[in-house]
Design brief:
flat, 16% strand, two-stranded parallel sheet, alpha+beta, two-stranded antiparallel ribbon, 2 helices, 49 residues, 35% helix
């Protein structure tokens, strides 16, 4: 799962405990991981499946 700080704890609690989790560091108004890098992470993770 690729996620950021905008994802609530309630949603995170639905994710399987053994799932891969990739934090991309976004929160409202602040982006420590550039969108292009997030896109590459999403593509890489999708290709693993």
């Amino acid at each position: 799962m690729v996620y950021d700080r905008l994802v609530s704890d309630d949603i995170m609690n639905l994710v399987r405990r053994d799932a891969d989790r990739v934090f991309v560091g976004k929160r409202a108004g602040y982006h420590c991981v550039p969108q292009e890098e997030i896109n590459q992470i999403l593509l890489r993770e999708a290709q693993k499946r």
